[in-house]
Design a protein that fits this description.
This protein is mainly β. The chain has two domains: 52-510, Methylamine Dehydrogenase, Chain H (7 Propeller), CATH 2.130.10; 521-650, Sandwich (Immunoglobulin-like), CATH 2.60.40.420. One of its GO terms (cellular component) is cell envelope.
Length: 656
C-alpha cells in the first residue's frame, strides 16, 4: 500500500512540475500552448469588430464579398455584374440598367481583381473598382453604401483580365485585354491572327470628387495576351506595367504553342506621356459602341447611356511611351513594391523569380540600349533592367505582395506554398504550405505605398479535405497568416464564395465610420416615391398600373387593391418609410416571376408584375422586421380582361 502511495505521489509531483513549467514565464505566467493559442488570435468577441475589411472577388459569381479579418466572417455579398435575387439587384426596374451592355442585357459576369482608390499612393477607402472578364466592364462600388454605383463597358477589348488597378492618386483605373482580337472587330480568318489582332489597354479616368469614370484613351498594342498589371508608385508614378504571354501570337493549342519563347515581356507604359499627347489633341476617335451605366443615389435609379466612339493611340506615334522588358517565362502576376523601384515578373514556367529595376530601366532607355523591337516598340536588354533573381524559390510563381518592411511574399501554384523573401538580397526567409494550389494572396494595403496589415491571406483553388464535404462542388479556401514576425504563422482557414481571384483589404477604421446607415427620405428624388401613407395611390395609364406603396413596421399602404385585369402590367413602387438603421423591408407577390425586392430605409424600388391568372393574390414582407412581421401583408385582386371592376385601394377599411 505504501508503495502504491509513493508511486502516486511521484506521478503527481512530476505532473505538478510540468504544470509549473508551462505556467511560468511570459504573459503573466502563461506559456506553451496556453500563450500561443491560435484561436485567440482570430477570435472577435461578441460586440467587438474586426480590425480589417477584406473585399474578395467572386470570380464566376460576378460579385464581390466582404469579409472581416482576422475572424474570416463574411459580412455581405455586393452584387456587381450578376443578378442577385436576395436584394432584387438586376431585377428591379431601377437596377436593370446596371447590367446593360452593347451586347444587350447580360445578367452574369466573371469578376476578378478589385482595387481600392488611393490618395498619394495610400488607400483612402472611398471606392473599390473591379473588372468583369467575359463581357469587358469596369465597376465602381461606393464604400459609403457598399453598393455598385457605376459600370462602364470597355470596347475593343476581350477578356478584361489585367484590370482593375488604380494609379496612386486614382487618376486612372486600367482595363487590359487578355485576348487580342481584330480592332475594329470584323469578319476575318482566325489563322490570320498574327500581325492583325491587337490588344487594347484602356485608361479610364476617375473624377476626383465624384469618382465618375470615362474612357480617356486606349493604347492599341501588338496581339499578345495581356495578363496582369500594376501601377508604378513613388519614383515610378506615371508608369503602368503589364505582363504579356503568347508573344508567339499563336491562335490554337496555346498550352504548347504559346510556351515556345524563352522570354515574354512586361510592357512598360508611360501613361503621363500619353496623357500629354492626348491633351494636345493626339490620337484618333474610333467608332465604338459601349454602355455607360450610372446609379443615382438620390433618384435610386440607374440609367444606361450608349456611347459611340473612343480615342485610340498607336504607341509608335508617341516616342518614349512604351517599352518591352524581357521576362521569363509566360509571366502571370506583375507586381510593384511600395517604393516603386522593383517590378516583379512572376514567370509561371520559370525556375527563378525575376525582379526588374525601374532605375535601370530608365538608364537603359536613356542610353538607348535596345535588343530590338516588336511592332515598332523598343525591347530593352534583359541584363540591363534586371535587379536580381530569387533563385529556385518554388514551382509555378503567380503573384507577389509586400509588407512595407522590405519583404515580399509570392504564391507558388504547383508547390502549393507562400514564400517570403527579401527585397534587394533576394534571399528566401520563410515558406509555408497552403491547402491547395494557391492563386492570389493579399496583404492589407499591399498594393500601395503604405501596406497596413499584420495579416496576409492566400486564396486557394482546391479545398479537398479542409471542410465537411458538400458534394463535388465546394467553396474555395482562404488561409490567414500572421506576418508580424520573421516567420509566417497560419492562423485560420475560412471558405470563400465563388472563385476568388484577387482581393483588396484595408484597415476597417478607414471606412466604417463613414458607412451610410440609411437613405434620408428628404433626399429621395425617385419619381414614384411616396413619403407617407397619405401619398399612397394607384394610377392607371392604359394597361399600365402604377402602385405608389409605402412600407413601415408593420403594414403596407395600400394593403388591398382591386381593379387589376389580365393583360395589365403592374408596377409596385415601394418606398420604405423607416429611418432607423438596419430595418429593410421585403416585398413579394404570388406569381412574381422576377425577384423579390429588399428595400432599404428611405429607399424606393420597383418590381413589375404581370398577372397571368384571375384571382386574389397575396403580397407580403419577406424580411422579418418586427414582432408583427407575419401580419405585414396585403391582397391584390385580378379580374378578367374585359371586367368592369373599378380601380380601388384601401388600408384599414373595406373597399366599397
Amino acid at each position: 500500500m505504501k508503495k502504491i502511495l509513493k508511486s502516486t505521489l511521484a506521478i503527481v509531483a512530476v505532473f505538478a512540475a510540468f504544470t509549473s513549467c508551462n505556467n511560468s514565464g511570459k504573459s503573466g505566467g502563461k506559456s506553451g500552448a496556453l500563450s500561443s493559442n491560435i484561436a485567440e488570435k482570430v477570435y472577435v468577441a461578441p460586440g467587438e469588430h474586426d480590425s480589417h475589411y477584406a473585399f474578395i472577388s467572386g470570380g464566376y459569381s460576378g460579385n464581390l464579398t466582404v469579409y472581416g479579418l482576422p475572424s474570416g466572417r463574411m459580412f455581405k455579398e455586393i452584387p456587381v455584374f450578376s443578378q442577385f435575387p436576395t436584394s432584387g439587384y438586376g431585377y428591379s426596374e431601377e437596377t436593370k440598367p446596371m447590367l446593360n451592355t452593347s451586347h444587350g442585357f447580360i445578367p452574369w459576369g466573371d469578376s476578378h481583381h478589385p482595387d481600392i482608390s488611393q490618395t498619394n499612393g495610400e488607400i483612402d477607402g472611398r471606392f473599390i473598382f473591379i473588372n468583369e472578364n467575359n463581357t469587358p466592364r469596369i465597376a465602381k462600388i461606393d464604400l459609403k453604401t457598399f453598393e455598385t454605383t457605376e459600370i462602364i463597358e470597355v470596347p475593343n477589348s476581350a477578356g478584361n483580365h489585367s484590370s482593375s488597378f488604380v494609379t496612386e492618386n486614382t487618376e486612372y483605373v486600367v482595363a487590359g485585354t487578355r485576348f487580342s482580337v481584330p480592332v475594329p472587330q470584323r469578319d476575318m480568318p482566325i489563322k490570320e491572327y498574327k500581325g492583325n489582332f491587337q490588344g487594347a489597354l484602356s485608361f479610364i479616368s476617375v473624377a476626383p470628387e465624384t469618382g465618375n469614370m470615362d474612357i480617356k484613351f486606349q493604347v492599341l498594342m501588338p496581339g499578345f495576351n495581356y495578363d496582369l498589371s500594376h501601377p508604378g508608385r513613388g519614383k515610378s508614378h506615371g508608369w503602368f506595367f503589364f505582363t504579356t504571354y503568347n508573344t508567339e501570337e499563336a491562335n490554337t493549342l496555346l498550352e504548347v504553342n504559346a510556351s515556345q519563347n524563352d522570354k515574354d515581356f512586361i510592357a512598360a507604359i508611360n501613361w503621363k506621356k500619353i496623357e500629354e499627347y492626348v491633351n494636345n489633341g493626339g490620337g484618333k476617335m474610333m467608332p465604338a459602341e459601349y454602355a455607360h451605366n450610372v446609379y443615382d443615389e438620390h433618384t435610386h435609379t440607374a440609367t444606361s447611356t450608349m456611347k459611340k466612339e473612343v480615342r485610340v493611340i498607336n504607341p509608335t506615334e508617341v516616342p518614349g511611351a512604351v517599352y518591352f522588358l524581357p521576362t521569363p517565362k509566360s509571366p502571370h502576376g506583375c507586381d510593384v513594391d511600395p517604393s516603386g523601384e522593383y517590378i516583379v515578373g512572376n514567370g509561371k514556367l520559370s525556375a527563378n523569380l525575376t525582379v526588374h529595376s525601374f532605375s535601370k530601366m530608365l538608364k537603359a532607355i536613356e542610353d538607348e540600349k535596345f535588343a530590338g523591337e516588336a511592332y515598332g516598340i523598343p525591347i530593352l536588354n534583359f541584363e540591363d533592367v534586371l535587379a536580381g533573381s530569387v533563385e529556385q524559390p518554388g514551382l509555378g510563381p503567380l503573384h507577389t505582395e509586400f509588407d512595407g518592411e522590405g519583404n515580399a511574399y509570392t504564391t507558388f501554384f504547383i508547390s502549393s506554398e507562400v514564400v517570403k523573401w527579401k527585397l534587394g538580397t533576394w534571399e528566401v526567409i520563410d515558406r509555408k504550405p497552403t491547402y491547395y494550389s494557391v492563386g492570389h494572396l493579399t496583404i492589407p494595403g499591399g498594393n500601395s505605398r503604405k501596406p497596413q496589415g499584420k495579416y496576409m491571406f492566400a486564396m486557394n483553388k482546391i479545398t479537398k479535405d479542409r471542410y465537411l464535404p458538400t458534394g463535388p462542388e465546394m467553396e474555395h479556401s482562404a488561409q490567414l497568416y500572421d506576418i508580424s514576425g520573421e516567420k509566417m504563422e497560419l492562423l485560420l482557414d475560412f471558405p470563400t464564395h465563388g472563385e476568388p481571384h484577387y482581393a483588396a483589404a484595408m484597415e476597417a477604421d478607414l471606412v466604417k465610420e463613414r458607412s451610410q446607415k440609411i437613405y434620408n427620405l428628404e433626399e429621395n428624388k425617385h419619381p414614384y416615391a411616396a413619403f407617407s401613407d397619405s401619398d399612397a395611390k394607384v394610377v392607371r395609364k392604359g394597361n399600365e398600373v402604377h402602385i405608389y406603396m409605402t412600407t413601415i413596421r408593420s403594414h403596407f399602404t395600400p394593403d388591398n387593391i382591386e381593379g387589376i385585369k389580365l393583360g395589365d402590367k403592374v408596377f409596385f413602387h415601394v418606398t420604405n418609410l423607416e429611418q432607423d438603421f438596419d430595418v429593410p423591408h421585403g416585398f413579394a407577390v404570388l406569381g412574381q416571376n422576377t425577384s423579390e425586392l429588399l428595400v432599404m430605409p428611405g429607399q424606393t424600388k420597383t418590381s413589375v408584375w404581370e398577372p397571368t391568372k384571375v384571382g386574389v393574390w397575396p403580397f407580403y414582407c419577406t424580411d422579418f422586421c418586427s414582432a408583427l412581421h407575419q401580419e405585414m401583408q396585403g391582397y391584390i385582386r385580378v379580374s378578367p380582361k374585359n371586367s368592369d371592376v373599378p380601380l380601388k385601394w384601401s388600408m384599414g377599411e373595406d373597399i366599397e
